[in-house]
Amino acid sequence: MKAIVIRETGGPDVLRYEEADRPQPGDGEVLVAVRAASVNPIDWKQRGSLDPEKLPAILGRDVSGVVEESRAEGFSKGDEVFGWAASGGYAEYATASAGEIARKPPEVSFEAAACIPVAGVTAWQALFDKGGLESGQRALIAGGAGGVGHLAVQFAAKVAGAHTIATGSARNHDFVVGLGAGEYVDYTQQDVASAVSDVDVVFDTVGGETTNTLVPTLRSGGVIVTIAGAPPEDAAAERGARAVLHVTSPDPEQLAQIAGLIAAGTVSVEIAEVLDLADAARAHELSESGHTRGKLVLRVP
What we know:
single chain; 301 residues; alpha/beta; Quinone Oxidoreductase, Chain A, domain 1; Rossmann fold; 2 domains; 7-stranded mixed sheet; 6-stranded parallel sheet
């Protein structure tokens, strides 16, 4: 099969489109003929930091495609599925555990489905499982136009029914407000802590210095959930709030729930660009720029 293989760590140039052995599914797994894969920041972070003993490697967690072979109950050849790849998603074929995939609704494209697993489930778990977001509460999404952020804005506003505030640059104002944000803070022109207050759930997708600027927006009893660095536990505690780090766990039921919302038109996936699998290096360059709106997708021939 054709795949994107890395044989050494480094920049995007280490991503090579070449022949690789087709993986074999184990017990409880399926072999997926991949139609699309999406790019996540963890991919390019691993590209530069993988243990040399784990090389050569195929990167990529998000895949959608058609079951080619099944050694798992509940899935048969020909089923259209999406979820987490076990063997690396930047390839024509990938294995996946039956506990980490779901059936793709016919109304959802392979490209959109490939965007759901990491970004969608991360946003869902951070807001609801860790944040406990409920109807009528105030939610602040830092990085509202990003791959995780644009889904989080919609989950908060349209699923939870929360008053949703998002941060981003001026160019993404109309896009994010169109997703359901009731307020938008241009972080390049405004101080978030001065513009926003009494927030129940803050979701930090940005990290770095941004994280500490979000803490003053919390109400007493609120929570900041971050996926982008160490949680500011001491600063949050001073406000009578909590700070937690979220690490996503694959959940097929949540996959199916999110896909159902997309199929119904309640939630939409913003795809910044669809590139061919052979152009994975370009996709990584775009992702690393930090200015991509929504998700980047790799189309598998």
